[in-house]
Amino acid sequence: MTLTITVERSGPAIRAALAKHRPEEGAAFEAEFREALDRARDTFDLAPVEAVLDRWWGIAAIRANPLTDAEKEQVAGVGRGDVDGLLARDDQGNWIRM
Predict the structure, then answer these.
(1) Which 3 state secondary structure label does DSSP give 96?
(2) Fewer CB within 10 Å: C terminus or N terminus of the chain?
(3) Tens digit of pLDDT for each residue in 20-37?
(4) Residue 1 banded pLDDT, cuts 50, 70, 90
């Protein structure tokens, strides 16, 4: 069983997760976040800051929880068209095995 690492949805937590796993992405996050803060300061609108957090939060969570070798093989298999054993929903919303 794999332990899932959660990343808090905050600037410091996202920055730390990105800096640990992909420093170049950490730098990109910092630049986007600072730009959004500058816009918020001028407009009193936090929407740009929230958008940056939304965008990078998911990326930080993915970086903190890289795919296992088995998951990488499954992704590669799908890329080759092999969907045997995968689950999908049918038109009624029921799970079906591919």
Answers:
(1) strand
(2) N
(3) 999 999 999 999 999 999
(4) low
Q: How far apart are CA 18 and CA 57, in angstroms?
A: 9
> 49 with 40: CB under 8 angstroms?
yes
Q: Are 37 and 49 in contact (CB under 8 A)?
A: yes
Q: List the beta bridge partners of residue 46.
A: none
pTM of the full structure: 0.73
Is the C-alpha dihedral spanning 58, 59, 65, 67 positive or negative? positive
What burial class does residue 61 get, using C-beta atoms within 10 Å of its C-beta: 0-12 exposed, 13-18 middle, 19+ buried? middle
Single-letter residue type at 41: R
